[in-house]
Amino acid sequence: METSNDGLRMLSLVLDTEKTSGPTAAVAITPMAPPDAPVAAATADGTRPLVIFDYDDTLCPSSWIEHHKLRHPNAPYPPNGRADLEVIEAAAHRCLSAAMALGADVLVITNAESGWIENSAARFLPRLLPLLQQLKVVSARSSYEHFFPSVPLCWKAAAFAHEANELWERDDAAMPAAPATVPEGNGKSPTALPIPPAAPAVVKRQRVILSLGDSNEERTAVKIAAEQLGAISKSVKFVQHSPPVELSRQLDTVTSSMQWMLADTKPLDLMLQPP
Asked: Which pLDDT score, from 0 to 100, does residue 34 have?
């Protein structure tokens, strides 16, 4: 876990470009191992935190792909372009794996159409695709645009609230109820009326939603969803339109502080700073 000094330093989330800069070739690319088994739940009552990743310009450098027109079948890659995609591929895998290893429920929620994540990952981030296929991927647009036409913030907020509520209801159903208590002496007297057992104690759980994305929509959506569900809202805003190597540094900054962010009991609203 991060030290308190590291935690305080994380509040500014200024990337140390001098330590992380260097040629792309210096980044080791090895076959991606599956995430480690969860080491601990982040909350004292055993409730798993929820970590929601955006996709475009968070896990995938979509603006860079669009800028270089790489969605066209025969588009040439820029110099080091394929190597740069391998860098972001590895960084995204590390960040997703870190959240999973801490016992969090991990989702990917996008405002893109259904199918975009799977298709783009297969083409540009093929080694990340197997991990993405283990996670629930939600198109907020496809699910909620017809309820809120032209209001993408509402798509995200509705998706955040629905998915969090569904997960926590499932977890509550799986948790054993507190044992019922019967007052001592109940039923011992032949004339005593039966006393119903006390209701199980209501346990107030510490709910945490951490949103990671590049737009203000995620920052607002997680606050709306958390307020509705009585949860602690946490968000990290990535720098918009970051190229692959810079985006990988942001992901690694978040990865190194993931445990601290999930374990901290206060709301967080952090912004990564451009170099």
From this structure: 55
Are 165 and 229 spatial neighbours (Cβ–Cβ below 8 Å)? yes
- Is there a domain that residue 34 lies in? no
Residue 192 lies in a domain: no
275 vs 166 pLDDT, higher one: 166
Separation of alpha carbons 25 and 11, rounded Å: 31
Q: How far is CA 137 from CA 55, 118, 211, 218, 267, in A?
A: 10, 9, 14, 16, 25
Widest Cα–Cα separation across the chain: 90
Cα gap 129→147, rounded to integer Å:
30
Structure tokens at 177: 């109820």
CATH number for the domain that contains residue 221? 3.40.50.1000
Instruction: Give CA–CA dist 97/104, Å, rounded.
Output: 10
The answer to whether 157 touches 145, Cβ cutoff 8 Å, is no
Residue 141 located in a structural domain: yes
Is the pLDDT assigned to residue 251 strictly greater than 60? yes
Q: Determine the Cα–Cα distance for residues 116 and 203; give it in Å rounded to an integer.
A: 40
Q: How many domains does the chain have?
A: 1
Task: Name the band, by pLDDT with cuts 50, 70 and 90, for residue 255.
Answer: very high
User: Tens of pLDDT along 171-202?
Assistant: 877 766 555 444 555 545 445 555 555 554 44
* Domain contains 156: yes
The string of pLDDT tens digits covering residues 27-45 is 333 445 555 544 444 455 5
pTM of model > 0.85: no
Domain that holds residue 113: 4-18+47-172+204-271
